[in-house]
Amino acid sequence: MKVVALAGGVGGAKLAWGLAQVLKNDELTIIVNTGDDFIHLGLNISPDIDTVCYTLANLANPSTGWGRNDECFFCLEELKKFSAPDWFNLGDKDLALHLVRTNLLKDGWTLSQVTRYLCEKMAIQQSIIPMSDTPVSTLVHTKELGVLPFQEYFVKHQCQPTMTGVDFEGIELAELPEAGVKSLNEAERIIICPSNPWVSIQPILKVPGLRSLLSDKPVVAVSPIIGGKTVKGPAAKMFSEMGIQPSAFAVAQFYRGLIEGFVIDNVDKEQMHEIERCGIIPIAVNTLMSDNSIRIGLAKDVLAFSETLMKV
Ligand code: GDP
Ligand code: CA
């Protein structure tokens, strides 16, 4: 059964890892947000792709969910001595990957070719595809600091500024790589991972032509908001600042017209009726992926749920 998952970084990668344990290797493709990509110290960094790759390769830092396990930061310490920008946590092992990516891009490789190469080297069996080979930059409009590139908002300013809007520079020219088009054409199910709807999933959905490739497939999303809060990151804060009460229901409404099914946490069970009234079929399960067995359990639940939707 061919499945395509849409993912951002940490939240997306956790479910993608679960799906990878349940599906055969050639059954899973993950299309990943590249709106967070940026150039730092001359290096091309793709934070969400890196998080998904490290997680699938079992190389991610288990306590943060991003970055490498058993990492050291000698380079970062030296950068500080040179008063170089040190706000982005660049571990030494992570740095090696960025050096390789940057050089290959300089040699004329596309981001999807580079990603495929890095996946092969990390022995990742699933297909990980960037949403676009041309650059897209998520820009967060803020009340206090004006327009901020995403990583500056997210890491340098710790998501503190008030968001007034978001846009995606370069999105009109973005093109889903050929392998992504093929995987979506062949997909029997689409899963939207519990990633930030505003800045991880929205850019993927805005890639020209991508949404129409989803229109004849059953799409299931998993809520990144549990009990009105995010597990990590600014998604709930973004809903509030955009004038929407953060909840699983708010996420369902965000995806209205796109998804057939919506997976919420057991603690949000009472929201099932209002989700149903939007024409979306809800299911409540345990969605807090605090360990590997829960990731696998959620992946199984999501796949079984999408099976029932196919039969509708
Ligand atoms: P980022 O790109 O690293 O910020 O990661 P994503 O956009 O993929 O994921 C961020 C979202 O994942 C946040 O809104 C979190 O609430 C959500 N998230 C993280 N861990 C979990 C989890 O275990 N379960 C659920 N349901 N959501 C999670
Ligand atoms: Ca991200």
Nutshell version of this structure?
The chain is an alpha/beta fold and 312 residues long.
Secondary-structure map:
Blueprint: E1 3-7, H1 10-22, E2 28-32, E3 38-40, E4 43-45, H2 47-56, H3 74-81, H4 92-106, H5 111-121, E5 127-130, E6 137-142, E7 146-149, H6 150-156, E8 163-169, H7 178-186, E9 189-192, H8 197-205, H9 210-214, E10 219-222, E11 225-226, E12 229-230, H10 235-241, H11 248-254, E13 261-265, H12 272-277, E14 281-285, H13 292-310
Parallel strand pairs: 1-2, 1-9, 2-5, 9-10, 10-13, 13-14
Antiparallel strand pairs: 3-4, 6-7, 6-8, 11-12
Bound molecules: guanosine-5'-diphosphate and calcium ion.
Structural class: alpha/beta
| Secondary structure: number of strands | 14
From the alpha-carbon coordinates, what is the Rg to the nearest angstrom? 19 Å
The low-confidence runs, each spanning 5 or more residues with pLDDT under 50, are none
How much strand content do the residues show? 15-25%
* Global geometry: globular
Q: Could you please describe the fold and organization of this structure?
A:
- With 312 residues, the chain is α/β, with parallel strands linked by helices.
- It has 13 helices and 14 strands.
- It has a 7-stranded parallel sheet, sandwiched between helices.
- The structure holds guanosine-5'-diphosphate and calcium ion.
- Guanosine-5'-diphosphate binds at residues 7-12, 14, 48, 51, 66, 194-196, 200, 222-224, 226, 230-233, 235, 287-289.
